[in-house]
Write a structure and sequence with these properties.
The chain is α/β, with parallel strands linked by helices. The chain has 13 helices and 22 strands. The protein has helices at about 135-150, 170-185, 205-210, 230-245, 275-285, 305-310, 315-335, 345-350, 355-360, 395-405, 440-450, 460-465, 475-480, and strands spanning about 5, 10-15, 25, 30-35, 45, 55, 60-65, 75, 80, 105-110, 120, 125-130, 155-160, 190-195, 220, 250-255, 260-265, 290-295, 370-375, 385-390, 410-415, 425-430. The longest helix is centred in the middle third of the chain and has 20 residues, at about 315-335. The protein is elongated, with a radius of gyration of 24 Å. The protein starts with a strand and ends in a 25-residue tail after the last helix.
């Protein structure tokens, strides 16, 4: 099959391989001659489309024609213009959502924490209150890794950043919040918090922000208040290690999983293969009592009503409306258009408008009810499908998922991206051609890691499986063993980027 018409109402189809000019394809009994070369993942017109008439994909308008488009024409960003505009009034039209998926009472091997949270990794983290001590924490982490050889722990990682001083107002508070979220994250069995002593983000005030903590696992050091910060730091790390290295994995209900849903480096197959797969997984996990989190708010523009009508009640609908319009208002206040994407790479991959991207992006959320809407760095408190305020920037959005308490991020990509956040980040390929068949196996590896492939999955999944590689390659195996005792720590970034913390947008 050389093309795919996603929805019967669509007036465009997606090329599944390169289509040559003059080539003829049969769409529902209609012979269509391709007028120009159509790259793989890109769209071509199934019928004539007049100027200003809507282009329909996924059964929804993804924009309107800039010019008259002829049947068989290549349809791309030069011939489509977005329908998006400023703030909108929305009407709540609730849908009755029923997943009809059995709760199988499945378990996974996790680390139970004293506060009731569960981690999928058992790591020791070094977190600075200010960027001035970045060199110190990097050196301490390196020394501790060499000394312990990581026996009994999954990783010892320093997370440098450039903040903690010379910040005011919301910038300062957001830095404190995300650092708090990291310190309390269940993937961290122990944390050494290192301050300088003269910074705005004072260690004492930050300590109070954390509430009740296990002082055998979370320790504090101010370098200006000790004679030798390296000797003192290593002493504290050894004490933390002595406790954390004794932690063992236990059988834990799947309901304790909180999984972040992300996409980046997208192409025209994103909404056809990998993203729907994540949607199926999301529905399945939620049916087991677990939680998933959908973010990248600007990439909901154009598909937001689908999510709004799945809100559990009117209050949650109102919160979703605010989530959308708040981001639009942010763009408008800064004299920017309300469509942040598509990026040049998105366009090259076959995505023409933000509506085009959004309708594929939101499929990662499956069909479950929206149970909560979270502010940036706000922790997950309600099990089910959550929406999280964060921009389309992959670095910021992935970090935000971790800040809210996600133990793992599932990250779909068609064009490829090496970025991962401070929690394990599993890449799932949109198409095997782009990924040379290696990373595409990660979709199945994800399920295998959770020991779900042995279960009878929803029939919908069986329709998706053939679209991804079914065989694991050597390069994919580390991802497939994400929850294993000795899984590599190098799958995510060891640095918080400049945009990860501070202002949410």
């Amino acid at each position: 099959m050389k093309f795919l018409q996603i929805n019967p109402a669509d007036n465009v189809a997606v090329a599944l391989e390169l289509l040559q000019a003059g080539e003829t394809v049969n769409v529902e009994g209609v012979e269509i001659t391709i007028n120009a070369e159509i790259p793989m993942g890109h769209k071509f017109a199934l019928a004539d489309v007049a100027v200003a008439e809507n282009i329909v994909k996924y059964g929804y308008a993804i924009g309107h024609a800039r010019t008259d488009i002829q049947q068989g024409d290549w349809v791309n960003e030069t011939t489509i213009k977005t329908n998006l505009e400023g703030l909108l009034d929305y009407e709540y039209n609730p849908q009755d959502v029923s997943l009809n998926i059995e709760n199988r009472n499945l378990t996974f091997k996790g680390y139970k924490r004293a506060n009731g949270e569960v981690g999928v990794r058992n790591e020791i983290w070094l977190i600075p209150t200010v960027g001035c001590v970045n060199g110190t924490i990097n050196s301490l982490a390196e020394k501790m890794r060499a000394e312990t050889q990581l026996k009994g722990v999954d990783a010892i990682v320093a997370y440098p950043h450039n903040y903690g001083c010379s910040q005011l107002g919301d910038d300062h508070e957001n830095t404190r919040k995300v650092l708090r979220d990291m310190v309390l994250h269940p993937n961290a069995g122990g944390v050494l918090i290192v301050g300088l002593g003269c910074e705005n983000n004072q260690v004492k005030a930050f300590r109070e922000m954390l509430g009740d903590i296990d002082e055998s696992r979370i320790k504090f050091m101010e370098t200006q208040k000790v004679d030798d910060e390296y000797e003192e730091g290593m002493t504290m790390l050894r004490e933390i290690y002595e406790v954390v290295s004794k932690d063992v994995r236990e059988d834990v209900s799947l309901s304790e999983l909180k999984i972040g849903l992300k996409c980046g480096g997208s192409d025209g197959f994103s909404g056809i293969t990998a993203n729907p797969l994540l949607g199926v997984f999301s529905d399945f996990l939620i049916a087991q009592g677990g939680s998933t989190v959908l973010t990248e708010v600007p990439e909901m523009f154009g598909a937001e009503t689908i999510l709004m009508n799945r809100c559990v009640n009117r209050n949650m609908f109102d919160k979703t409306v605010f989530l959308i319009n708040d981001f639009k208002d942010y763009f408008m206040r800064n004299n920017q258009p309300v469509y942040e994407n598509p990026s040049p790479g998105n366009k090259d991959g076959g995505i023409s408008t933000l509506e085009d991207k959004s309708l594929g992006c939101t499929q990662k959320g499956g069909s479950a009810t929206v149970v909560d809407v979270l502010k940036y760095a706000e922790p997950i408190t309600t099990k089910g499908l959550n929406l999280l305020s964060a921009p389309g920037n992959d670095l910021v959005a992935s970090s935000a998922l971790g800040f809210s308490g996600c133990q793992l991020v599932l990250f779909t990509t068609g064009r490829g991206t090496p970025f991962g956040s401070f929690v394990p980040t599993m890449k799932i390929s949109t198409n095997s051609a782009t990924m040379a068949g290696a990373i595409s196996a990660l979709a199945m590896a994800t399920l295998s890691a959770l020991d779900l492939t042995a279960c009878t999955m929803p029939e919908k999944l069986d329709c998706i499986r053939p679209m991804v590689s079914s065989s694991l390659t050597d390069s994919a195996l580390p991802f497939g063993t994400m929850f294993a005792d000795k899984s590599p720590a190098a799958l995510r970034s060891d640095t918080l980027t400049a945009n990860s913390i501070g202002r949410a947008m």
